[in-house]
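Entry 14. Ran structure prediction on the chain below.
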Amino acid sequence: MSPVALYPDPLLAQVLAAATFSQDIPEAARWADQHHYLTGQALTAAISADHLPWDPSVQALLPFPSVLSMMAAAPPWTQEIGDAFLAQEADVMDAVQRMRQNASRYGYLHSDSQVQVRTGPYIEIVPTNPDYVIVPYYDPAVVFFPPRPGVFVRTAVSFRYGVRLGVWFQPWGWYSSNFVWGTHTVIINRAPWGRTWVNRAVYVHPTTIPRYRAEVRAAEAHREIARSPREREAERAGRAREEHGREERR
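Output, structure tokens:
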């Protein structure tokens, strides 16, 4: 869990749910990369127009191509997270808390202008502005261990790069997804996430998002403009970079 343990709670909840559909992640990552120039209402309209067949938990990550790219780049890791979450949800949540406690104890994890770190028996990480979800950048080999010489503790976790969602993404559970850490409950779109290893073939989480079959997917109606290598590296390193001009967006 170390690469995602410091994600803000709403984003981490969506990542865990999406990982249970790990087989859909590579194709979703490609679509997100090719449509990264679409945001807000234009992006939700494209999701609907293209009749994307993936579970809404996977679609919820389409505004975050860097996150989907990370998950797609390591299929065994993504499947392991999804399988663990299906079979041992409480253990996964406990692992996240242990890592957060370490990061906080050693001084790496703290509130800033972008996120609030709420301490207590459980550590919550929530966006300061629920409309702007941060994707933190950090080195898991550093932030969960005692500081070594040369490590700048206060800047080891960067909360600089984020995605502005807007009200159009409410049906996918944004603004209403979180953890109830004390009871090991994950809330997605105001309802407890109930997909387990036993019911994984039949479970359908309550949502208003239409579910399309892959064989009836609509023809692509938007230009496919993949992120440049510099854009991908900028997002990976916690920075925003957009190189495409208006002509490319049309």
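The beta strands are 115-118, 124-127, 132-134, 162-164, 178-180, 185-188, 191-192. Will compare against last week's run tomorrow.
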